[in-house]
Amino acid sequence: MKPSTCQKNCQNALRVADQLCQGRGVRLTPQRRQVLEILCDHHKPMGAYDILDLLKSELPAAKPPTVYRALEFLLEQGLVHRLESLNAYVSCIHPEHPHASQFLICRDCGEVRELESRSVDRTLDSALKACGFAADSQVIEVTGRCLRCTERDPS
Amino acid sequence: MKPSTCQKNCQNALRVADQLCQGRGVRLTPQRRQVLEILCDHHKPMGAYDILDLLKSELPAAKPPTVYRALEFLLEQGLVHRLESLNAYVSCIHPEHPHASQFLICRDCGEVRELESRSVDRTLDSALKACGFAADSQVIEVTGRCLRCTERDPS
DNA sequence: AATTGTTATGTTATCACATAACATAACAAA
DNA sequence: TTTGTTATGTTATGTGATAACATAACAATT
Ligand SMILES: [Zn+2]
Ligand SMILES: [Zn+2]
Ligand SMILES: [Zn+2]
Ligand SMILES: [Zn+2]
């Protein structure tokens, strides 16, 4: 993806976030929006302190709680996912329809990809139903090598 | 489960671990075995520093690396799972056939249950295959309320 | 038995991630 | 303009994990 296209996607994602928040009557304040923008601008998962470092260039007074509060909001609104196995955060590619977190994490290139498999979702749901478990959040994270890295170096 | 039965299960799990390690030519040293025993004796997930506190009663010189090294070994051997969303560890109930980590975590009673669903496993595998992703570890963690807690207080 | 390479442990310090607690400010409704 | 609510500022601390280096135990070889 060319940089120009990429930046356009980021801008678009922010507009979508604006609309979603307005529609829900919640406030995407400048701080929250800046954190989301940082996550959108990067394609790889970022730690809270990585975000903090970047945020400081726009908001020198930023401190850990600044970032964690923004992340808490963005997670609640489904605009961002947390990657439990990396202690990192990544912007959601389809925030308009909230969904369970399903990620493929490449250990070579660091790329993360949202899987969004309905069949996995359904199968897991029925397994949960079968044992009477009432889920309120699901985490699926698969670590390995992505197609591109496997093709580049099939070892 | 009665205490006597439980303790028997723990002893049995340790014997199984002994045999597995012997068969694989790896060493379940006293330290490693003690950490595994602590995890087997408790049914709930434990943080590394919780384990450390208990370990100190038998091994006063124990320090964080002592525990983390033992956990690293036990994880490699599939004797223990790490719960990513809790930063905690729990002993595996079926170490004799290594498997992907699938957990149901009750937010009320704290109970964790290994799901071991073959259908979930298969569905995820085929989704991974479809996008050419070569997995080397899978994490599935579902948080919610277990059947018992739902029945006790259906709210 | 002595040598040597390997694996495991001891020890100190530090890094990385996250939140508690309390004060102030901005906002929105009455 | 008062009042309640939500958001932010600030300091300190809690919690989880590892780096780096030294020493000891073990196992294979000579
Ligand atoms: Zn998403
Ligand atoms: Zn890759
Ligand atoms: Zn298991
Ligand atoms: Zn429960």
UniProtKB/TrEMBL annotation, chains A, B:
One of its GO terms (molecular function) is zinc ion binding. Signal peptide: none annotated. Its cofactor is Zn(2+). Binds 1 zinc ion per subunit. Zn(2+) binds at C106, C109, C146, C149. Pfam families: FUR (PF01475). GO terms for biological process: negative regulation of DNA-templated transcription; regulation of secondary metabolite biosynthetic process. Homodimer. This is Ferric uptake regulation protein. It comes from Sedimenticola thiotaurini. The lineage of its organism: Bacteria, Pseudomonadati, Pseudomonadota, Gammaproteobacteria, Chromatiales.
